[in-house]
Specification:
This protein has about 450 residues and is α/β, with parallel strands linked by helices. The protein contains 18 helices and 15 strands. Bound molecules: pyridoxal-5'-phosphate.
Length: about 450
């Protein structure tokens, strides 16, 4: 759409009428918003003409980079052909059917079905209803509890926020977490590992799941849900001992294992799905973000045979779904996007090519005076800022140094995100070596600035 209003008018309209998500609404009334007008490759352009490298791929989602005409073209074509029709009551549409089969081709063996949603939060809401339906069909209706983790993020709907363990979200809203949801501690070695080695700590934190199952009674527990690595929590990469132990416990107590792949899915970790990186096999995977690279909203729950066969063979009615489940234009965009990820070998690039280069360059910051730890996998990473790297002691007033660092980077041409004092990176998978050099140079200036 060509812009018909001048920027001053738009900023005023925004300030007066737009309530922004996850924002300080009081502050924004004063500060207003920066208008991002267009984007190309890994660069954003705002209404002042400022060019900024997007080191965060929007919100961990623009995996194939901005400005891909192929996606705009398939969306326009599909909107002309069939902009919308529901997939309830015995109908489907060509892109949704093609997408379901294409997803099967890129997922690990044993995943042959998908349920479409409009977002990651809706995917996790679907998980809740689907796992409970599964246990009803298995004549074990008391299996209702879903166990998540503190400091996990699973979305912003009531179910998503409940499964997640973000204290500030629970605090804002009495009644969260909802009934039959519980949490265990997270595998955050840098902050909570104490004197244990990462491997010992990973095992110990996984065993918290066993303790919780025994406390609740295995006959009451439906599933465990976890992100392969906690993204919004601070790119917390669990020690190698963690996931195998979680898998063992789920198997032993007959608990479904759900991998929230909303960030990790579709290449971010250098594998198609994060669970493949960490070597576990979930029963269900929630996805969104990289599924369409954010070009249109879409999510899904990819369902393994164990659950799908029960739902299909003896489940009958599954009373759940969304108006936009299997939306034709979103599905067409997802098909084109997944084909780009496959044909341009972006997963391989994130693992061994530009991803490797990115990780090597970031690792050089480990010796920087304010850096406690650098963690990375594929093309996702964190730099942990701290006051004392030997004792892993954080700065007082957690968040102040991270905000300073993030703001300095932004003023100097790079979008990063800060969770407290952890700097987060998740650039488009298409980023080149030269663009990585630019990202690294601005990061260095930003670290020097807060040192
Ligand atoms: N799950 C994870 C791991 C996420 O990171 C997010 C969003 O950041 C969600 C779920 C929620 O996705 P959405 O914002 O599309 O509802």
């Amino acid at each position: 759409m060509n812009q018909s209003l001048d920027n001053k008018t738009l900023k005023q309209m925004d300030r007066d009428h737009y309530l922004h998500p996850f924002s300080n609404l009081t502050e924004m009334k004063e500060t207003g918003s920066r208008i991002i007008e267009r984007a190309e490759g890994v660069y954003l352009y705002d209404s002042e003409g400022t060019k900024t490298l997007d080191g965060f791929a929007g919100l961990w989602c623009v995996n194939i980079g901005y400005g891909r005409d192929e996606l705009a073209d398939v969306a326009a074509e599909q909107m002309k052909q069939l902009p919308y029709y529901n997939s309830f009551f015995g109908t489907t549409n060509p892109p949704a059917a093609e997408l379901a089969a294409l997803i099967k081709d890129v997922t690990p063996e044993g995943f042959n079905h998908v349920f479409f949603t409009g977002s990651g939060s809706e995917s996790n809401d679907t998980v809740v209803r689907m796992v409970r339906r599964y246990w009803q069909c298995q004549e074990q209706p008391s299996k209702k509890y879903i166990i998540g983790r503190h400091n996990a993020y699973h979305g912003s709907t009531i179910a998503g926020a409940s499964l997640g363990g973000m204290g500030y979200m629970h605090k804002q809203d009495e009644g969260l977490p909802m009934q039959f949801v519980d949490h265990i501690e997270q595998p955050y070695w840098f902050a909570e590992g104490g004197d244990l080695s990462p491997e010992e700590f990973g095992l110990q934190r996984a065993q918290k799941l066993e303790e919780k199952i025994l406390e609740l009674g295995a006959e009451n527990v439906a599933a465990f849900i976890g992100e392969p690595l906690q993204g919004a929590g601070g790119v917390i990469i669990p020690p190698s001992t963690y996931w195998p132990e979680i898998q063992r416990i789920c198997n032993q107590y007959d608990i479904l294992l759900v991998s929230d792949e909303v960030i990790c899915g579709f290449g971010r970790t250098g594998q198609w799905f994060g669970c493949q990186h960490f070597g576990y096999t979930p029963d269900l995977m929630s996805v969104a973000k990289g599924m369409t690279s954010g070009y249109l909203p879409m999510g899904g729950v990819i369902v393994g045979d164990k659950v799908a066969n029960v739902l299909v063979e003896k489940g009958g009615d599954f009373n759940h779904g969304f108006t936009y489940s299997g939306h034709p234009a979103s599905a067409a965009v997802a098909v084109a996007n997944i084909k780009i990820i496959r044909d341009e070998e972006l997963v391989e690039k994130a693992a061994n090519d530009t991803g490797k280069y990115f990780r090597e360059q970031l690792a050089t910051f480990a010796d920087h005076p304010v850096v406690g730890e650098v963690r990375s996998i594929g093309l996702v990473a964190a730099i942990e800022l701290c006051a004392n790297k030997e004792t892993r002691e954080f700065f007082p007033n957690q968040g102040d140094t991270g905000s300073l660092c993030r703001n300095f980077a932004l003023q100097n041409g790079l979008v990063l995100r800060a969770t407290a004092d952890t700097m987060l990176f998740s650039p488009p998978l298409t980023i080149s070596r030269e663009e990585i050099d630019e990202l690294i140079a601005i990061t260095k200036q930003s670290l020097d600035f807060v040192a």
